[in-house]
Q: What sequence folds into this?
């Protein structure tokens, strides 16, 4: 692509908001401002700088991150975060007992979770949740993004564990971010 | 500061330290690579989380300043820890790190037998 062509495309883009948007990730921008303000002491100057950064960075990186994150159900997202926090605390105690107990009792296994979620961000959220809850680590996503390989520290029924993950974490995530 | 808050802060910090310790013990004690990965996830979640909660409680009670920044430590850890665990696990899978439990247990048993023989 020559420079002129690019220039032309750029001009078209500014006319058609579909090509190069000024606000590609509205949710992300709001979160960025909030994090910037809490990292620095909240003042008027930092608010302006934060808004500038949270508009500029998503504008520059939008080609690498084409689909915007959309939160369809904010209330459900809060409930989901609470659920994950409670699960992390519960699972921590269970895994603590397992680690201190004898190694032979641990029935470690790999198992695959068939993914219904398709958005990259949602898959990343799901994989992060699985890793953060002690006892399971998500270790590989298949190239077609349809299966997630999970390693569990102690699991007896592999199918039950996969169904638990789907039911407990994947379904709310799908509702929050996708449909 | 009331005694109750002091006890709460002490309990939270001890809880955090305890989980960091158990995570580290898991890292040493568990038999194969993939099981060892489970140790650090504990240390980053409840381990750091407990200590941060204790610190926030202390500063709110003593200095009357609510430090929101400390929660950001936890937030960034929660974002980055799964990514690094994922990359480590993926690298191990590609290098075909041995994870067959029975194989490793039989190796350990053979080693113990050898030690017993050496002793006797």
A:
């Amino acid at each position: 692509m020559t420079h002129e062509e690019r220039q032309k495309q750029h001009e078209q883009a500014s006319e058609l908001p579909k090509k190069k948007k000024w606000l590609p990730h509205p949710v992300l921008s709001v979160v960025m401002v909030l994090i910037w303000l809490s990292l620095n002491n909240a003042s008027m100057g930092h608010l302006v700088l934060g808004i500038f950064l949270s508009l500029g960075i998503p504008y520059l990186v939008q080609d690498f991150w084409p689909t915007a994150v959309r939160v369809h159900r904010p209330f459900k997202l809060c409930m989901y975060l609470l659920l994950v926090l409670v699960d992390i605390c519960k699972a921590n105690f269970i895994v603590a007992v397992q680690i201190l107990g004898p190694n032979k009792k641990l029935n470690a296994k790999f198992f695959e979770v068939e993914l219904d979620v398709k958005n990259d961000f949602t898959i990343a959220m799901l994989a992060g949740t699985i890793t953060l809850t002690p006892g399971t680590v998500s270790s590989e996503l298949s190239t077609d993004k349809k299966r997630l390989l999970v390693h569990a520290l102690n699991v007896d029924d592999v199918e039950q564990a996969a169904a638990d993950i789907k039911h407990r974490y994947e379904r709310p995530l799908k509702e929050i971010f996708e449909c | 500061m009331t005694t109750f808050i002091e006890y709460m802060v002490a309990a939270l910090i001890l809880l955090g330290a305890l989980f960091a310790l158990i995570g580290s013990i898991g890292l040493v004690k568990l038999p194969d690579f993939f099981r060892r990965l489970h140790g650090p996830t504990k240390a980053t979640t409840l381990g750091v989380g407990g200590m941060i909660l204790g610190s926030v409680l202390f500063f709110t009670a003593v200095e009357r300043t609510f430090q929101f920044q400390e929660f950001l430590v936890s937030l960034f850890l929660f974002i980055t820890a799964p990514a690094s665990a994922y990359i480590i696990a993926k690298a191990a899978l590609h290098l075909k790190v041995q994870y067959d439990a029975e194989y490793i247990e039989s190796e350990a048993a053979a080693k113990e037998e050898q030690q017993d023989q050496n002793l006797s």
